[in-house]
Amino acid sequence: MRAFELVTATDCRHAVALLAEYGPFAKVLAGGTDLLVELKSSPHVPEVIIDISRAEDLKIIAVTDEGLSIGALVTHTEIMRSALIREMFPALVDAAHTIGAVQTRNLGTLGGNLMSGVPSMDSGPALIALDALVTVAGPAGRRQMPLAEFFVGPRKTILKPDELLAEIVIPKQNFGKPAHFVKFGLRKGQALALVNVAASLWVGRDKQVFAAPRIALGAVAPTVIRAPKAEAYLEGRAITPEAMAEAGRIAVGEAKPISDFRASAEYRQDLIAVLIKRALEGACAQAKAKRDRET
Amino acid sequence: MANVTLNVNGEARTASVPPETTLLKLLRDNFNLTGAKLGCDVGDCGACTVIVDGKPVNACLMLAGQADGRDVLTIEGLATLDGLHPIQKAFEDNASLQCGFCGPGIILSAKALLDENPAPTAQQIRDALAGNLCRCTGYTKIIEAVQDAARALRGEPADKAA
Q1: Residue of A103, A190, A192 to mutate, testing the B interface (most B Cβ within 10 Å of its Cβ)
Q2: Where in chain A is the domain with CATH 3.30.390.50?
Q3: pLDDT tens digits, one per residue of A17-39
Q4: Residue B58: closest CA among chain A residues belongs to which residue?
Q5: In angstroms, what CA-CA distances link A31 with A67, A77, A207, B38, B41?
Q6: Are the Cβ atoms of A39 and B2 closer than 8 angstroms?
Q7: What stretch(es) of chain A map to CATH 3.30.43.10?
Q8: pLDDT beyond 70 at B159
Q9: Would you call B63 and A51 a contact, using CB atoms and an 8 Å cutoff?
Q10: Mean pLDDT over residues A57-79, rounded?
Q11: Which among B46, B63, B127 is the nearest to A32, CB-wise?
């Protein structure tokens, strides 16, 4: 690895101050599972690495007035083990479990996975299906935006060089919303997604219809995307296997998968339709289990 | 230079290293603990696995500075003068390793699993070892060894039928 200067941030505020000082010449180190690989292979090593991995205030999982707040430095293992997340959002636990392997899940962070901006990330779809917001800390204070707007291209986020991703928030209105995540990779362990899908939905109060359905897809476009046409098709429609299959077919037209050494675009298109149906079935099964528990 | 002090296998160790030094390089080059191996150097193979504050991690993906003040367990910390650790013994008895390059990492991943889950299923063992690649034996004997070690650590006799 080429030489760099290492500075350690003690908390979020300190990290933002260090970014203000070094911003354009610096990169932020969280879990390191992506950054260290990049530093070892890239000829362009930043002059300064800002190590935020000791910023304890970025490692908190808590219910706040806004919703469920997950600090950017919470690791994938911590998500899998959080009693709160396991109870409230099992889809996030399932997504975290499919990332890398034990060793990388112990190091890698939720914020780091999102900051990577890779289209195949496994954290993105489930969070976007739950309308997650991200809180960004900068020199002028904090700003918040939907996670879906945070990604602007492959490996590109909306973040400015002097800003830091601080937390991820799942809004209160989605507490208890049934959601399901499915990933298709070439192996069960340590595989990137060929396609990953998350779906969330409410079941209508009086009738068995889809309400506020959300479908989010990874690895099929330059960023993680939603499938608004498929969502609009489902809204208010009776919950049937045919409707779920049709939503999958509609979403194929909303994605722009590429062919690469892992899979062809055509194969990914087939996967989109199948996985969306499975994600919707999973979310419906969860809704039913919840209703059975409550009655 | 970064000054680091960490507790390695129960012993306080100190070094002054360039900031870009990984934990793996620190262990191997500064502390002469060569049990953790440099394999892929990108976090895929698990040959560099060590246990930091109770959790298995890829030592190649952690900077030495990030390990400052932490507890690190390497394969050298398992056996005692009295003999091998029960997991090491089970790997020997089952002939689970051929070249052995993946062994230290796999055994430490297995230890981290068994510390938390004394009776894992075969699937749980596979999940815990998914980050450790072996290119010699296949994984059957490795999984059997972890199951034997689990029994031994629970104080049960070895399953002769298996």
Answers
A1: A103
A2: 179-287
A3: 999 999 789 999 999 999 999 99
A4: A103
A5: 25, 12, 46, 19, 15
A6: no
A7: 5-51
A8: no
A9: yes
A10: 98
A11: B63
CATH topology of domain A179-287: Enolase-like; domain 1 (3.30.390)
Provide the token pair at A108: 């890698």
Q: Which residue has the tokens 């002469």?
A: B32
Residue A168: partners with Cβ closer than 8 Å, 6 or more residues away: A69, A70, A72, A110, A111, A114, A127, A132, A133, A134, A135, A147
Q: Which CATH number fits domain A5-51: 3.30.43.10, 3.10.520.10, 3.40.50.2300, 1.20.1440.20?
A: 3.30.43.10
Interface mutation vs chain B, best among A5, A42, A49, A102, most B CBs within 10 Å? A102
Domain A58-174 falls under CATH 3.90.1170.50? no
Q: State mean pLDDT over B16-26.
A: 97
Q: Which residue of A has its CA nearest to B123?
A: A188
Phi and psi dihedrals of A182, rounded to 5?
A: -130, 140
- B62, A102: Cβ pair inside 8 Å? no
CB contact under 8 A, B130 and A106: no
User: What are the structural domains of chain B?
Assistant: 2-75 (3.10.20.30), 86-153 (1.10.150.120)
ipTM confidence score: 0.96
Residue bearing tokens 């599972």: A33
Q: Between residues 2 and 41 of chain A, which touch chain B (CB distance below 8 Å)?
A: 2-6, 8, 29, 31-33, 36-37, 39-40
Phi and psi at B87, nearest 5°, equal -70, -40
CATH 3.30.465.10 location in chain A:
58-174
- Contacting A with CB below 8 Å, chain B residues are 2, 18-20, 22, 41-44, 46, 49, 55-58, 60-63, 65-66, 109, 112, 126-128, 130-132
Point out the residue among A2, A32, A190 whose CB comes nearest to the CB of B131. Answer: A190
Residue B89 CA to residue A222 CA, distance in Å, equals: 50
Residue A230 has pLDDT above 80, yes or no: yes
Contact A37 B126 (CB under 8 A): no
Residues 70-109 of A with CB under 8 A from B: 77, 100-104, 106-107
Contact between A70 and A110 (Cβ < 8 Å): yes
Token pair recorded at residue A196:
């990953």
